[in-house]
Amino acid sequence: FFEENGSDFTIVNAKGEGLLHACAKGGESPARTYGADRISQWLMEVQDLDPLAEDIESRSALDVATASGCTGILELFRR
After folding, report:
1. 79 vs 16: CA distance, rounded Å
2. pLDDT tens for residues 7-62?
3. Which residues pair with 54 in a beta bridge?
4. What is the distance between the terminal CA atoms of the chain, rounded to a whole angstrom?
5. In this structure, how many other beta carbons lie within 10 angstroms of the beta carbon of residue 44?
6. How far apart (Å, rounded) are the C-alpha atoms in residues 22 and 20?
7. Where are the domains of the chain?
8. Which of 22, 52, 56, 69 is in the most buried spot, having the most CB atoms within 10 Å?
9. Whole-number Å distance between alpha carbons of 7 and 20
């Protein structure tokens, strides 16, 4: 649906955080509710997003996942 309608998966906010950063954040984010690990895997494999891309504070999505305890995302890199 999103691809067919021209969605830009590389968009970042004013803090330089991309979709992978959003998935990696803790709390009650929509990504956490719907499976941040599966969404992140799809974004990396299908949309070719870089999990090492840094925000303006030099934090990658993996850094954010580590800090927020999002173990599902971290498990993607232990396989």
Report:
1. 28
2. 899 999 999 999 999 999 866 565 555 688 889 999 999 899 999 999 999 999 99
3. 60
4. 29
5. 17
6. 5
7. 19-75
8. 22
9. 15
